[in-house]
Amino acid sequence: MRNTRRHGLVMCRVVVVFSSCISFFGNALAQVDADDVQALRVCLLANNLPYASRSENAGFDLDTASAVARILERPLEWIWTDNPADIQEIEESDFPLRRLARGDCDLILSMPGPAAETLGGDGSLVLGEAYYGAAFELVGCGNDLPSGLRALRERTVAIQSQTVAHFALLMVQAKTKTYFAIDAALAGIAEGEAEAGLLWGPAAGWELHRTGNRQCTLSADYRPPVAVRWNLHAATREADGELRLRIDGALLDLSTTDRLRNIGRGYGIPVRPPFEMTYSLRALNEL
Question: Would you say 254 and 131 are in contact if contact means Cβ atoms under 8 Å apart?
Fold first, then answer.
């Protein structure tokens, strides 16, 4: 009887220890699994609204990256790069390509194509599938606007200096009124110095949204010609093929369910579906 009771006590202790071990190792394995989920690291410019702002913790790319990370079920890490605060137009942007190439981050969003022109000749970097389009948009302040650029012939149109819009308007024989900033161009249109504006859509839309300007709007009927439109992509390292496919899938999900357009609306950005054809010198010459 005494041996039986002792045996039972030993077995009870074994069961308690075994259960404790299962609990300990189960928790440890769960922690390992959690640690194995790597963060999605996104390179962003610190002063680049409407795309991103470190001080305001906001921006179209920042919100898009957050949505992508949720779809991929990965934590998100921002990798910030300091830059001048006055970037206005696509050719001026100083994308942090070197940081992406050396592995500081996993992707950069809103990268214009084609890759041969925008990735700096770095063969280690590639662009994913286009997930939205952006263009020079027609802006009016109470005036009727045409749906195409050729109808602007002989009309005075506001532009920002040193942009493709200048060359496009010369090709359609419009008269240009040059400004050095988006806000100045919008003010010029509102004051009647120009009948319309041909301005970079994300920058113009953001300025109207930021200031609450309801006098001026982007034309809803305008169809941007090939010469003044671009597709935007996520840039990744060429070696990260599997990750790139998953990011492309997440961005496709966002763009085909209107969630990307809704993110853009929060910053005044006109998010267009990807274009079949985009800017080329030939397209500019054929306007």
Answer: yes
